[in-house]
């Protein structure tokens, strides 16, 4: 089923993306905006400094290798530029609150059988405390007697599709085991008829005081069909390092970047909580398909001519992944679902979108496969250099660092300024931190696998059943080998070539860079195992009995890293240090032929024990 959309948009209203005065205001103004513009100018100059140097004909080596690396670098710079271009256009709702006497509002929270009522009750209690007049609803897949009794005592109404076969279809719309089907029943039975605005929340996302005021403020503009809000999964951040990895990494997206989308393109509904104008939702055919119904609903709304705004100050706080297994499952499912939307559904709505939104939605739906492919390329670059003894450009490593370090350094300064000005969500998210540093390396293997499975699903017609991430007491502490295995394989994929490939001439420096990559994945594997043991208060013997392969793999992996560093580190660092100066960390000697010494003329590399001593001596002098 595909809804037919009017390419001209809602009657009498502009196409999405054009703003009217009075309903929104710029987030960055005056001196604050000038500070950002100054840093952006520095970023532009730093970027020009790098690319002018990198594209110098003297740096280019023959063949495709130089251009493969150039495209990979281009992707990194494009993502930086995209972030800057979007966030600078940030706007926030500034209209008056709609008159409660004329605007019928509902808040609804969804619940699956696997989600404990204790989790949902906290959310319902916070919904009931909202000051803006509204009805409170629970969309429960299988309401239990105690749930029904509590809701009756507190004035909460229940919507349930249990036993309604028409709302348990195997395909969208009204799909079974999917939030879209659960909410579709509510909208069809009461939502469209009784309410003008509906705010949807996941079971664990607790709205803070004033939340609903900020949500409905966005609908003061009659062109607005949906309001997005920051997805802050911080309830369990203290105890879950997996939750912190994503929380800190995505703080800019849920804050100023989404506000930039509202000013320039289209903000993205995030499934944990967003709100819709029911007349707009009915016009476009209801909530969108797939696990990523938030994204597909955003597409449907904009293709139908409605626009969205981002309510930065509508704060609801939910649970992040309880453990690394849940994080990996989420990344796999989200990437699979978003690419499925591109491969299966986007073509039906593409023509109705204006050009800038055509670009935005195709780019967003392609982002996961692009991200995974470029991460794979960046992973393989040093490994292939070692295996095939090749360089990618006629440059030295110190010179590369001198030119490449400034754009990310300026971008980091911009991030610190955004945090200082309170435009992160959450506002206290870290700019730098070990959890944030490992997130992309944690994420991409599962994103790659999710994209592969989405392609397979599309061409085989395979049905995908989604797994609900456990919340609250339902979350389990497990560490299956399949969760750890990708990082063990990625670490070994770097370490083994360093150990086995001898007589490298052109790419000696890549020994160390490859080993550095391997060390990152080895460290990730170690953190996963150590934190699992520590967080679950397991003793060493208990851990060895419960997860023997996982535990024993870590010391073996770390021993291989150390062995590879001792074996290849000296010659690799010597090669990387060309152009730095005379003082060397490495001593090299030409071997004279003799028993056990190798062939005459062989060069032996050793760590120079006098390096630090001479360094400190020279400082004193």
N-to-C span: 80 Å
* Number of strand elements: 14
What do the pLDDT scores average to? 90
Please give the share of residues in helix. Answer: 40-55%
Strand order of the largest sheet: 5-4-3-6-10-8-11
Instruction: Assign the structural class, choosing from mainly alpha, mainly beta, alpha/beta, alpha+beta, or little secondary structure.
Output: alpha/beta
Supply the number of helical segments: 20
**CATH homologous group name of one domain:** Spore Coat Polysaccharide Biosynthesis Protein SpsA, Chain A
Radius of gyration: 28 Å
Shape: globular
Main β-sheet: number of strands, strand sense, barrel status? 7 strands, mixed
**Mind telling me the CATH class of one domain?**
Alpha Beta
Textual characterization of the structure:
There is one protein chain. 53% of the residues lie in helices and 9% in strands. The chain is α/β, with parallel strands linked by helices. Among the domains are: 93-323, Spore Coat Polysaccharide Biosynthesis Protein SpsA, Chain A; 586-620, no CATH class. Helix 3 (117-128) links the parallel strand 3 (105-111) and strand 4 (135-140). Helix 16 (481-500) packs antiparallel against helix 17 (508-535) and helix 18 crosses helix 19. The longest helix is centred in the middle third of the chain and has 34 residues, at 355-388. The chain is globular, with a radius of gyration of 28 Å. The model is unreliable at 11-20 and 589-597 (pLDDT under 50).
């Amino acid at each position: 089923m595909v809804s037919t959309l009017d390419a001209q948009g809602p009657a009498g209203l502009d196409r999405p993306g054009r703003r009217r005065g009075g309903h929104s205001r710029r987030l960055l103004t005056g001196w604050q905006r000038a500070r950002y513009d100054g840093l952006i100018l520095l970023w532009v100059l730093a970027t020009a400094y790098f690319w002018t140097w990198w594209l110098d004909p003297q740096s280019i080596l023959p063949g495709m290798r130089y251009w493969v690396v150039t495209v990979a670098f281009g992707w990194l710079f494009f993502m930086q530029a995209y972030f800057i271009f979007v966030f600078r256009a940030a706007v926030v709702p500034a209209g008056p609150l709609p008159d409660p006497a004329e605007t019928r509002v509902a808040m609804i929270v969804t619940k699956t059988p696997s989600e404990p009522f204790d989790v949902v009750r906290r959310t319902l209690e916070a919904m009931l405390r909202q000051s803006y007049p509204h009805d409170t609803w629970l969309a429960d897949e299988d309401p239990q007697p105690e749930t029904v009794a509590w809701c009756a005592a507190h004035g909460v109404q229940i919507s349930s599709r249990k036993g309604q076969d028409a709302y348990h279809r195997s395909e969208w719309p009204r799909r079974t085991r999917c939030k879209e089907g659960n909410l579709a029943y509510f909208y069809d039975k009461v939502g469209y008829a009784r309410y003008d605005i509906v705010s949807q929340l996941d079971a664990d996302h607790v709205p803070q005081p004033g939340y609903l005021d900020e949500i409905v403020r966005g609908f003061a503009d009659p062109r607005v069909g949906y309001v997005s809000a920051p997805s802050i999964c911080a309830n369990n951040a203290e105890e879950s390092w997996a939750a912190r990895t994503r929380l800190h990494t995505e703080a800019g997206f849920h804050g100023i970047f989404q506000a930039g989308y509202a000013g320039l393109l289209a903000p993205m509904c995030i499934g944990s909580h967003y709100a819709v104008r029911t007349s707009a939702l009915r016009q476009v055919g209801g909530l969108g398909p797939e696990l990523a119904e938030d994204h597909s609903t955003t597409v449907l709304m904009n293709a139908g001519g409605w626009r969205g705004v981002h309510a930065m100050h509508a704060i609801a706080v939910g649970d992040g992944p309880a453990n690394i297994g849940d994080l990996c499952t989420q990344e796999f499912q989200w990437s699979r679902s978003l690419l499925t939307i591109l491969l299966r559904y986007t073509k039906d709505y593409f023509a109705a979108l204006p050009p800038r939104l055509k670009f935005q939605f195709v780019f967003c739906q392609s982002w996961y496969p692009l991200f995974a492919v470029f991460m794979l390329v960046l992973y393989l670059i040093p490994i292939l250099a070692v295996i095939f003894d090749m360089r990618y450009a006629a440059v030295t490593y110190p010179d590369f660092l001198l030119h490449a370090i400034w754009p990310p350094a300026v971008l980091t300064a911009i991030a610190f300024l955004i945090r200082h000005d309170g435009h992160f969500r959450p506002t206290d998210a870290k700019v730098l931190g070990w959890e944030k540093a490992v997130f992309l390396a944690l994420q991409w293997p599962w994103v790659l696998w999710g994209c592969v499975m989405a392609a397979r699903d599309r061409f085989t017609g395979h049905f995908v059943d989604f797994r609900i991430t456990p919340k609250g007491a339902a979350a389990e502490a497990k560490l299956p080998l399949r969760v750890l295995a990708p990082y063990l394989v990625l670490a070994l994929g770097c370490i083994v070539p360093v150990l086995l490939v001898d007589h490298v001439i052109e790419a000696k420096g890549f020994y160390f860079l490859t080993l550095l990559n391997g060390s990152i994945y080895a460290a990730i594997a170690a953190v996963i195992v150590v934190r699992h043991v520590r967080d679950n208060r397991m003793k060493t013997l208990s851990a060895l009995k419960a997860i023997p392969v996982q535990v024993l793999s870590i010391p073996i992996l770390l021993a291989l890293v150390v062995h590879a560093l001792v074996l290849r580190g000296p010659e690799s660092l010597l090669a990387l240090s060309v152009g730095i100066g005379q003082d060397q960390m490495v001593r090299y000697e030409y071997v004279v032929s003799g028993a056990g010494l190798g062939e005459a003329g062989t060069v032996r590399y050793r760590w120079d024990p006098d390096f630090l001593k001479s360094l400190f001596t020279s400082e004193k002098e």
